[in-house]
Amino acid sequence: MTKSLEEALYLAKLAGVYTASEVQYQIVKGPEFSRDNSPFMLENFLEAEAEEPEISKEEILEDAFERHLRKAEEDFISPDEIKKVLGDEEVIMALGEAVCQEIPKFISANPEKFKGWPGTMKDWHKLMMTFQVDNKEVHDKTTWPANSVIHEAIERYFKPEAPPKFWHRDEEWLSRCEGRGTRKRAAAHAVLVRGTGLFRVNGQQDMYHRWPQIYHRIDVCQPFKLTGTAGIYDVFVSVRGGGLSGQAGATRLAVARALFQANPNCHDRLQKGFCLLEDTRQKMSKMAGKPSAQASFVWGKR
C-alpha cells in the first residue's frame, strides 16, 4: 500500500525516526543552549538587547533640587542656595564642570539681573539648561551632544579630502573601512561598506554556505553585536588557507579591526569580547622521519 509523503513523515515521527536537521533543531532548543525554549540561532543571537533607560538632565536636576533644598517649585531660591545644587556630583556630570563653574561667576558679575527675578525652581532650571556667558553658549564635548548636521557641513566644506562618514547611535563611523586578520593557517581580508547587512565571502558565496556550523557564524558576527552595528554595513571577505574554524577566526579579527578603524571609540567594547586579540598559535608541522609533528615510529632494540 503506497502512502503519501505527509503520511510517511507522520508515521516516521511516531516511530521515533528523525532527520539529522530535526535532531540538531531539538538540541539547540534545549535548556543548555536557550533559556526561553527558542532555538539558539543567528537571528536570535543578533537581537538587540534591552538597554536601560537613561536618566535625563531634567530628572537629575529635579532630584538635586529636592535633595539639597527641599522646596516647592513656586518657592523662592536665592543665588547662594543654588550653589549647593551646582556642587552636586550628579549635576556636575550631567551639565559639565564648565557650566557649574561659570553660572556662579555670571550671577556675581550681574547682580542687577537677579535683583527682581522670581528665582523659582523652574527659572533656575531653565537658566542651567540654556546658560550663556557673554552671549556665547558654553560648549563642553563631554556634555553637549554634537549636532550631526552642522558637523557634517563643516567636514564637507572645510575638509573635502576627509573620507565619507555617517552617524549611528550618536557616534561617527567611516562609510568604508577594511581590516586583515589571521588564525592558525588562515588569513582574511574584510572590507566594510555602508549598506544593509549583505555578507559575501570570496566573491558571491554566502556566509551560511561558507560556515554551516552556527558557532562559526557566531564568531564572525560577534564584533557587530558588541558594537551594535549589525545590518548597517555590507561585508566583503576574502579568505584563504586553513580550515573552516581558522577562516572564521581570521574573519572575526579582520571585521573587528575594520570596525575599530571606522570608529576608535568602540575599542573597549571589542576588547571586552577579545575580538582584537590575535591568536598566533600554530599547528606544528610534520617532522621528517616521523609520522606526525611529535609522534615517533615504534622502535625496538631487538
Would you give an account of this structure?
The chain is an alpha+beta fold. The protein is 42% helix and 14% strand. The protein has 13 helices and 9 strands. Helix 11 runs parallel beside helix 12 (244-262). The protein is elongated.
Q: Notable features of this structure?
A:
3 domains, 14% strand, alpha+beta, Ribosomal Protein S5, domain 2, 13 helices, 302 residues, single chain
Short description:
The protein is α+β, with helices and mostly antiparallel strands and 302 residues long.
Task: Compile the SSE list and pairings.
Elements: H1 5-14, H2 20-28, H3 42-45, H4 57-68, H5 79-86, H6 89-95, H7 97-109, H8 121-129, E1 132-133, E2 136-137, H9 148-158, E3 165-168, E4 171-174, E5 176-183, E6 186-194, E7 199-201, E8 205-206, H10 207-210, H11 214-227, E9 233-240, H12 244-262, H13 267-272
Parallel strand pairs: 7-9
Antiparallel strand pairs: 1-2, 3-4, 5-6, 6-9, 7-8
Helix pairs in contact: 4-6, 6-7, 11-12
Main CATH class of the largest domain: Alpha Beta
Task: Give the helices and strands as they follow along the chain.
Answer: HHHHHHHHEEHEEEEEEHHEHH
Strand order in space, largest sheet: 5-6-9-7-8
- Proportion in helices: 40-55%
- Secondary structure tally: strands: 9
- In total, how many domains does the architecture comprise? 3
Number of H- or I-type helical stretches: 13
Mean pLDDT: 77
Question: Which residues sit in consecutive blocks of at least 5 with pLDDT less than 50?
Answer: 31-35, 132-145
CATH arch. level architecture of the largest domain: 2-Layer Sandwich
Largest beta-sheet details: 5 strands, mixed
